[in-house]
Batch of 2 targets.
Target 1
Amino acid sequence: MFNLGQDIGIDLGTATVIAYVKGKGVVLREPSVVAVDNNTKEVLAVGQEARRMLGRTPGNIVATRPLREGVISDYTVTEKMLKYFINKVNGKGLFAPRTMICIPSRVTEVEKKAVIDAATQAGSRKVFLIEEPIAAAIGAGIDIAKPCGNMIVDIGGGTTDIAVISLGGSVESTSLKIAGDKFDEAIVKYIKKKHNIMIGERTAEDLKINIGCVYPKIQDGDMEIRGRDLSTGLPKTITVYSSEMMEALIEPAMMIVDAVHSVLEKTPPELAADISDRGIYMTGGGCLVEGLDKLLQEKTGINVMIANDAVSCVALGTGKALDNLDSLERKMH
């Protein structure tokens, strides 16, 4: 039996790239960071190794994230990153793999083409695209083919995709550029304004993960961080509390809640009734900010559930969609 190359599902995220291989599950989970030598344009490191270099590189080496807000901002670097990941997953496969890549729900034709081109250049035999909320819904274990409404709120690193899905397609959706990265930015701004200390995005992310919250906690958590004191220019250690994190994060969190609200308002009444019965599903790493589910539940009055393995939902859904590739290919011909 010839191995015709594996089918790979890729969640091409702003913060993380997750790859799924048919029959093997999630085989790769790495930060979407690439370190490039500015003089030679050579890629020095990709993924985990490159993330360690963020904010710590000498002048000629730049560690960047080639995707911004869910779309490709640096085409050449994205292509190299995809090539690296596809090769890593495909190994010594003789044949080029078929690849299913996940994209935010509201991307333009040009942006779609950029993803297809990058994946083709990176060595895919055939490239299929799937919308993020649909992949997230499949990954969360929802049967999207049924004629009933399901609402998905997928909060990634660069975008939050909100969609009402019925009969396998999205009936009403929106995509906003407020997600994990904006939470980090809000923390950086807040610490600068309140403590006059400058911190990097990695410290901000650690704060968000460890003590971040958007709903009042019974017990205030705290964490020590180091940053640069803007008045002296020297390093300084301070203690930050989760109550402060809540002040920092409530604004971007409320923007997501408002967007969910406006999608619900535009949803046909029958589907809206289904959603109030079945609840709202949250997926994506960004939905793990403590209390976000409670905040959304309080503001919409609808039960909110965080999917199992929320971070991998989109990749799992993309992978499950691969199983139907053959029927997809037949439809396309």
Note: The chain has three domains: 7-135+314-332, 145-178+250-309, 180-248.
Target 2
Amino acid sequence: MAKAVLTKYIQPDVLSRVEQYAFQPRGLVEGTLAGAHKSPFHGFAVEFAGHREYVAGDDLRHLDWNVYFRTDKHMLKQYEMETNLVCHLMLDVSASMRYGEADTQKLLYASRMAVTLGYLVVEQSDKVSLATFDDRVRDARRPSNSMRQILDMTETLDEVQPVNKTAIGPAMLDLASRAGRRSIIVVFSDFFVDLNDLEDALQRLRYDRHEIVLMQTLHPDELHFNMDGMIRFVGLEDEDVFLTRPTDVRNAYLDAMNKFNERLAAICEANQVERVLVDTGRPMAELFADYLQQRALVHRRW
């Protein structure tokens, strides 16, 4: 049973395309273990960062005698510690995420991306957590770098019942109170929410110096509205029913969607938040590999 659930969320073709990439932070992180990421704290470890003047009580082993012979000043070598990454995954399990069929369903697509990303994080000996939310946090697992964490994540996701409305602001603020030290927070959602509440939550998380990635997960119908005939639209998070020909409302819909996405993009840019548009009609192996490759290139420039 456990293996069947795992293979539902981690697909071999996706994993083979993305496992060559490391999920690196764009800035500095804090951690408790020796790992692969630079820490903002200075100590005596790993990578040379600079000098500071000696004060009484400092460890004389770290005096830079070359500097002393040149300047007659006692200067200590300082180093940047390298530390582990903590990646918090947040998955929207509200009713609107039910949209789509089979592999293009938004919730299934986002769940697979989350589990695969969690697997990559654990593979590089870093910690990952998962929180599911709708109008509140439904389940939250503590960060772990054990492969058991990935199996537990899949079992949690397999029990999700997406029936409630979304209230992303309170859920993100709840996570902010739990997250503690600086980390990467990756949110999977369609973000059909009150953008003022979202911005308030993002500002709180950025104040705590977390790096934030918004994976905006949308179905091709939502992106392009390429539907024909007479269609009965039924609200997933309310009881609204709307019978119409899509061709009659397509232009108005696309205009509203473009304005919504432009405002979301502006909020992300203003708050230094990364936004990734995830089209569930696109092969996941291709989309995920392109994103991780681009992120790796940006990381090298930091």
Note: Residues 37-83 form one domain.
